[in-house]
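Fill in residues.
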């Protein structure tokens, strides 16, 4: 059966939510969306997904208590956090403007902000010799985190200082596994050394890492907190988050954007390629963000710092003109990898390294709060056959 599609105004009316909430539903894969063939700057939404959410909102009663938060009447999980906020189109790490912080801060310094660490947890960390794993960055990331999850202790009863040191150690080994180890440089310098980048280009990697650290409380952050609430090691919390990150709403979008940038670069006319995609009912990946309806400040900052050549800047201009939306951070990362002529999977390494800081921050905060995350399964299947 063919899907039925409805405009935004009807979705907002049926669900009784604000546009930001609708964008969040789309980004988390709860409502499918596609460009409006009559106006690619607008979107249409899957009617059956909207109906399902509307029915659930009727069935759900009053908000129920959850560790540090609540389950809203519309089924949204709410968890209190002091890590990251988005206000007036800007993103803040514990009250510090992330874009401003990224101008000069290393990822280690951003980690100290997000982890609320007065002492430097990275001081005197010893390198580990056996960090060499086979395969690409994704395989190596899973391997190093799985090994650490097997080795590390539970978070229960641990002092904050000890946990922050362990978080730094997990991040340190993750980067070593991705970059191949070597001299004790800053984290961004280790990745830059792997790709043989000059100092100016290494600074772009540093900026991208800091801007990648955290955004909203999406599925990866939630599962990191859930693992930590269960007493799992910090490395297991990051491993759980990484498993969620590779899904289509998260890492999958970065892959689609990288592929689109490569396709646009190969063609003689980016506008023709973009129009062809829209005519086929496909979206232009890398444009628009549900949390930043007026433009993603992280993408803007990174793209400005890159000083794109004209042919790559044209990809951005064409996309903005056809979609009516600004480039998001996935597009900025895709353009960065292309401009620096890095391997296809390099931006996965940048994205995951940066996000690991945020995931560790969520895990640390969850452990410190001590509030369990309670989720109650509501059975809606067939009635049991009794007798």
């Amino acid at each position: 059966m063919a899907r039925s599609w409805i405009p935004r105004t009807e979705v907002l009316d049926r669900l009784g939510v604000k546009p930001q909430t609708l964008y969040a539903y789309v980004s988390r894969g709860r409502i499918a969306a596609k460009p409006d063939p009559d106006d690619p700057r607008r979107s249409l939404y899957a009617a059956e997904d909207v109906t399902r959410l509307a029915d659930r909102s009727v069935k759900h009663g009053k908000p129920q208590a959850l560790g540090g938060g609540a389950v809203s009447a519309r089924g949204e999980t709410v968890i209190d956090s002091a890590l990251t906020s988005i206000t007036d189109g800007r993103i803040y790490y514990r009250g510090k403007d992330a874009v401003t912080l990224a101008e000069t801060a290393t990822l280690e310094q951003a980690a100290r902000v997000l982890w609320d660490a007065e002492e430097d947890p990275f001081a005197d960390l010893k390198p580990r010799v056996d960090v060499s794993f086979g395969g690409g960055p994704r395989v190596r990331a899973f391997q190093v985190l799985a090994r650490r999850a097997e080795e590390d202790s539970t978070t229960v009863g641990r002092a904050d200082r000890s946990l922050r040191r362990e978080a730094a150690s997990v991040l340190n080994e993750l980067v070593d596994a991705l970059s191949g180890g070597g001299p004790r440089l800053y984290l961004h310098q280790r990745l830059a050394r792997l790709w043989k980048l000059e100092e100016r280009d290494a600074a772009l990697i540093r900026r991208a890492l800091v801007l990648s650290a955290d955004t909203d409380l999406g599925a990866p952050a939630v599962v990191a907190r859930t693992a930590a609430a269960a007493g799992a090691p910090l490395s297991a919390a990051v491993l759980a988050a990484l498993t969620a990150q590779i899904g289509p709403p998260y890492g999958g979008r970065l892959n689609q954007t990288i592929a689109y940038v490569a396709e646009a670069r190969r063609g003689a006319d980016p506008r023709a390629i973009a129009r062809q995609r829209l005519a086929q009912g496909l979206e232009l990946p890398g444009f628009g963000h549900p949390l930043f309806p007026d433009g993603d400040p992280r993408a803007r900052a990174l793209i400005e710092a890159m000083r794109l050549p004209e042919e790559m800047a044209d990809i951005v201009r064409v996309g903005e003109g056809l979609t009516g939306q600004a480039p998001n951070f996935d597009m900025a990362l895709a353009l960065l990898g292309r401009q620096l002529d890095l391997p296809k999977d390099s931006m996965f390494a940048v994205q995951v390294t940066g996000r690991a800081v945020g995931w560790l921050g969520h895990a640390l905060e969850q452990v410190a709060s001590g509030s369990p995350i309670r989720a109650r399964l509501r059975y809606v299947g067939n009635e049991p056959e009794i007798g």
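Residues 346-369 form the longest helix (24 residues).
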